[in-house]
Design a protein that fits this description.
alpha+beta; 8-stranded mixed sheet; two-stranded antiparallel sheet; 5 helices; 26% helix; elongated
């Protein structure tokens, strides 16, 4: 028996949008934040695809990363639905944007990137993908304000200088050395080793604690 609403219409009587997924993969290259892009007939865009029958959104996002960008085994999460009626000139298309951040060591030399400047792509992207990237950057900053390097963009062991430089890249602004140290030190443990990277004075190496949550004061400091 076919279900019908109070107007006597079945689900198939209503126009249906196509559903797509797009994935903003953020990474650090050349000491700047970048996003992975792929070439399309409408210009550079985020890796994306249309949802297939019997496929869930996560499966479609994983397939898009593999087939469009050659990226496999990437941890990603949903960002939000982009549903402006005319966002795609091909028709009525809703897109569930996903976000990920990964070390550039995990990406291929064949991947293409667009620089992120002032929280947005430095060059135009197709559709509303620039807005997706901007939201992905904001979400990444919120995550980094709550936890020490949750995306593991730097090595397992690092100096405080290396960690601060990473945070300056993510938040796109200089951070006072002593204030940053005070906010993050309680979420780290010393390794007992030192590093003389760059030829300077040896600096202590740290690692993240098992649950490296930052205090609320750090979030206020970083997101201010």
């Amino acid at each position: 028996m076919t279900w019908r609403d109070r107007d006597g219409k079945a689900l198939t009587d209503y126009p249906r949008p196509s559903v797509a997924v797009d994935v903003a993969v953020l990474t650090v290259r050349e000491r700047r934040l970048h996003v992975v892009v792929v070439p399309t007939e409408r210009g550079r865009a985020l890796p994306g695809t249309f949802l297939r029958p019997e496929e869930n959104l996560a499966g479609a996002a994983d397939r898009a990363l593999q087939t469009k960008a050659g990226i496999v085994d990437l941890t990603f999460h949903q960002l939000r639905m982009f549903d402006a009626p005319h966002r795609d000139d091909r028709g009525w298309v809703l897109s569930m944007a996903h976000s990920a951040a990964v070390s550039t060591r995990s990406l291929s030399v064949t991947n293409e990137f667009v620089l992120i400047d002032n929280g947005r792509p430095a060059s135009p992207l197709a559709f509303d993908h620039g807005e997706m990237v901007a939201e992905a950057v904001l979400e990444l900053r919120e995550r980094y304000a709550r936890e020490v390097d949750p995306a593991l963009l730097i090595d397992e062991e690092f100096t405080l200088l290396e960690l601060r430089e990473l945070y300056e890249i993510v938040f796109d602004r200089p951070l006072p050395k002593d204030t940053f140290r005070r906010h993050v030190l309680g979420s780290l443990e010393g390794t007992g080793l030192t590093s003389a990277a760059g030829g300077g004075r040896p600096a202590e190496l740290y690692r993240r604690l098992p649950r490296p949550t930052l205090p609320p004061s750090a979030g206020a400091f970083l997101l201010d």
